[in-house]
Automatic annotation (TrEMBL):
Record bears the keyword Glycoprotein: no
Membrane topology: Multi-pass membrane protein
Name this polypeptide is given: Uncharacterized protein
Keyword entries, A-Z: Cell membrane, Membrane, Transmembrane, Transmembrane helix
Domain of life where this protein originates: Bacteria
Protein's cellular compartments: Cell membrane
UniProt source species: Candidatus Falkowbacteria bacterium RIFOXYC2_FULL_36_12
Presence of keyword Repeat: no
Lineage: Bacteria, Candidatus Falkowiibacteriota
One GO term describing the cellular component: plasma membrane
Amino acid sequence: MTKQTIAKNTTYLTLAYIGQKILAFVYFVLIARFIGVEDLGKYTFALSFTTMFAVFIDFGLSSALIRESAKSFDKTSKYLSSILTSKSILAILSYLVVILVINLMGYPPITKNLVYLSGLLMMLDSFTLSFWGVFRGGQNLKYEAFSIVISQVVVVLSGAYVLLTHQSLMFLMLPLLAGGLFNFVYSSIMVRRKLNVRYCWKFDPEILKFLFKIALPFALIAIFSRIYGNIDSVLLSYLKGDAAVGFYQTAMKVPFALQFIPSAFAAAIFPAFSYYFVHDKAKLKFSFDKAMLLLTIFVVPISFGLLSLSDEVIPMLFGQQFINSVLTLKILVFGLIFVFLNFPLGALLNGCDKQVTNTKLVGLVMALNIILNLIFIPQYSYIGAAAVFLVCHALLFLISLFVARKIIPYSRRNLILVFAKTILSAVIMTIAVLYLKQSMNLVLVMVIGAIIYIGVLYLVKGFSRQDMTYLKQSMLRK
């Protein structure tokens, strides 16, 4: 696999995710404006609820498939056949558990029906994940990239029709199913046609035993992450009702539409961390320092910018009915800083033989997240959930930073200086934005704010040309 092919694959997938995220965000804005707070709460709850169970269908098998097919592609057909057969059983069991649990929780018929439909999507997506896993193992990502964009276009177009014709809330799940079905059919056909991987519905017990053993670490981190990422919305729905979920999810969508950026960056630097850990500790320290610097420079102004413009952004995007989301957004934007910085920390731990430690950390924070949400949601509703989100991500950051110190002797002083310079620049930008927004167009205010931030950061020597060169090189590295 040449560097050019690697760069091309990375570009395909990154551009596809950018397009998909833009379309998904625009679609979410349309849904929120058309159906209102409470129905949005029902809709997002159904998706969050089934997302937690989806991991029990895949159970890390797709990650194991990627790894093993990359090593021995000639065995991929046997691996895929065993995984698909296993997933068929796990999918039925997981769907039955979803039905049982949602009925035990005593939700009204409309919410149950939304969950039932979302559960079908959960099953489709899990099978699709395995088909694309074969392509990833074969280092061929352009077909997945194409499917990501087209399936989202299918969702947006069919969803727009449902919204414009004022269909019932249940029909709003059908566009997601249409997009998921396209992705499933396309991936299942292309894996045969382009990679000549034949599969059938039978499994080899020895192969499954081998794959499950490999998949277990992936499964644990996936289970912890899925529960950690969705339990707040589920608890909000159960304890405070649909409107609380609607306000919370609306605030969450604005900053976290950009989460694919640190994710892509971490994916790009992960192989470098793994290599340098074995061969060059000095370069490992250098790469980690630069990764933390660049992501800090990027995320801090976004957080402060959203903080200063949240009173305008929420009504402008979603309408006055979502004005209660403003305070939630102001809390979540600070959590966004830690979300961004936890990506390179996680990549460092996983790349330097600390996967078990990282899994334990995520599991610990997940447990704390559940406990704190049970304490604060009953009294403070979605505001409490946002505060818990901030605290838990900050805690994960601090503990991961402590563990990272045992891998490489990064400079605490330099890290503090990075934060100090970026926060100073962002504060000056925020003061200017708060003043200018009273009399100027918001888009123009954002542009001027960005120029002020970059200018101040340059004056305080917050970045250098070397940093920009590193950013360009890291995104082209395997």
